[in-house]
From TrEMBL:
Gene Ontology terms for molecular function: alanine dehydrogenase activity
Enzyme type, top EC level: oxidoreductase
GO cellular component labels: plasma membrane
SUPFAM superfamilies xref list: Formate/glycerate dehydrogenase catalytic domain-like, NAD(P)-binding Rossmann-fold domains
Name of the protein this chain belongs to: alanine dehydrogenase
Family as reported in the entry's similarity comment: Belongs to the AlaDH/PNT family.
Lineage: Bacteria, Pseudomonadati, Balneolota, Balneolia, Balneolales
Known EC number: 1.4.1.1
Residue ranges of every copy of the Alanine dehydrogenase/pyridine nucleotide transhydrogenase N-terminal domain listed in the record: 32-166
Alanine dehydrogenase/pyridine nucleotide transhydrogenase NAD(H)-binding domain boundaries: 178-326
InterPro entries membership: Ala_DH (IPR008141), AlaDH/PNT_N (IPR007886), AlaDH/PNT_NAD(H)-bd (IPR007698), NAD(P)-bd_dom_sf (IPR036291)
PANTHER family the UniProt entry points to: ALANINE DEHYDROGENASE
Length: 404
């Protein structure tokens, strides 16, 4: 088959296959991919190429009918890759020992969980409940969260990839809402000769903030980045060749910056915890009418006081004459790109589980997945979650070492 040298999807897939196709794993895993039931969630955890790699290593994959269609991966491609097409989510959960999802489980999906099952998905800390955690404990579920998976290099690979997409997309979204037809000020991000560009204020100097800044600079906007971490500001300033203006995110600088901002990108967050709320309602009320707020960390609680979760079907609302866009799963808007990104990270982890002989054995060997575990054998294993929900917890290392 001829491959277009500009077809990045094919190039990425071939590179992944080159590194991962090998002899069969220690155990054969039964892996389930149920269809995402949220109307706004279009991603899926594995591409057909990822399925073929897992199949070549001796694993069985069960995918619900139509699960990949919203990311433009039809059932036939998964069937050709060796997956079994299941007719319902119930069928997928019953047949699987490891379930791969994007969104946290719904109430109906919690009922479908089988005792001792393992789940790898997002947790969305800002919208979780004590009852959700108790359901995991009751069924002795091993829960591994995208937000917690962290390797020895201290990087969060899934979070990083999704944040790169989110940061870039946030600026595309902001540019759209600044247009007159969208109710904005009717200005361009980059301006033109003789007309100054828009002013973008980015809250947070992490990965999302970095990619938002890169995209905004590409448009030609004037970019301010604010954070409470001086080291993070210094790193980003150096990485972007000092083309941005940085400031400490204190009340004085925030109040001043928001008064002349055309766009606010909310990207302030602490890994594994709720986002800090830096922007008060009074600050929002003092902004220019028709300005835009894109709060990219709304799934962690948001960093703007007037933010509340929206959806891809109803993405925005206006408060104090400011347009707010607060969609929790921005990468779902580019579902195919996001699915390839997830697949490239998840496939090696699933292979590692099979090579180790199962989830329990892999948690002992694999630092990233061990860090990612938030529930194990009827125990909560993250202190931050235990404090949030007033529940007891035990360290995952202690549980594994105790042979529980």
């Amino acid at each position: 088959m001829d491959i277009n040298p500009l077809d990045t999807e094919q190039i990425g897939l071939k590179t992944l296959e080159k590194h991962l196709i090998r002899s069969k794993s220690e155990v054969s895993l039964k892996i389930g991919l149920p269809k995402e039931i949220s109307n706004d969630e279009r991603r899926i955890s594995l591409t057909p190429g990822g399925v073929s790699i897992l199949k070549a290593n001796g694993h069985e994959i069960f995918i619900e009918q139509g699960a990949g269609e919203n990311a433009n991966f039809p059932d036939q491609q998964y069937a050709d890759a060796g997956a079994e097409i299941a007719l319902s989510s119930e069928d997928v959960f019953k047949k699987s020992e490891l379930v791969l999802k994007i969104a946290p489980l719904s109430d109906d999906e919690l009922e479908l969980l089988q005792p001792e099952q393992a789940l790898i998905s997002a947790l969305h800390i800002g919208s979780q409940t004590k009852e959700y955690m108790k359901a995991f404990m009751d069924k002795s579920i091993t829960g591994i969260g995208y937000e917690y998976i962290r390797g020895q290099d201290k990087e969060f690979p899934i979070v990083r990839m999704m944040h790169e997409i989110t940061g870039s997309m946030a600026m595309q979204i902001a540019a759209h809402y600044l247009e007159s037809m969208s109710g904005g000020q009717g200005i361009m991000l980059g301006g033109i000769s003789g007309v100054p560009p828009a002013t973008v204020v980015i809250l947070g100097a992490g990965i999302t903030g970095e990619y938002a800044a890169r995209t905004a600079l590409g448009y030609g906007a004037q970019v301010f980045v604010m954070d409470t971490d001086l080291a993070a500001l210094r790193r980003l300033e150096n990485a972007l060749d000092r083309r941005i203006i940085t400031a400490v995110a204190n009340h004085q600088y925030l109040s001043s910056a928001l008064k002349f901002a055309d766009v606010i990108i909310g990207a302030a967050m602490a890994e594994g915890e709720r986002s800090p709320c830096w922007v008060t309602e009074d600050m929002v009320a003092g902004m220019k009418a028709g300005s835009v707020i894109v709060d990219t960390v709304i799934d962690h609680g948001g960093c703007v006081a007037t933010s509340r979760p929206t959806s891809h079907s109803e993405p925005s609302y206006v408060e104090h004459d400011i347009i707010h866009h607060c969609v929790p799963n921005i990468p779902s808007g580019v579902a195919r790109t996001a699915t390839y990104a997830l697949n490239n990270v998840l496939v090696p982890y699933v292979l590692a589980i099979g090579d180790a002989g199962g989830v329990k054995q892999c948690l002992w060997e694999n630092v990233a997945l061990r860090n990612g575990t938030y529930s194990y054998k009827k125990h909560l294993t993250k202190k931050s979650l235990a404090e949030m929900f007033d529940m007891p917890y035990r360290e995952i290392e202690m549980l594994i070492a105790s042979q529980i």
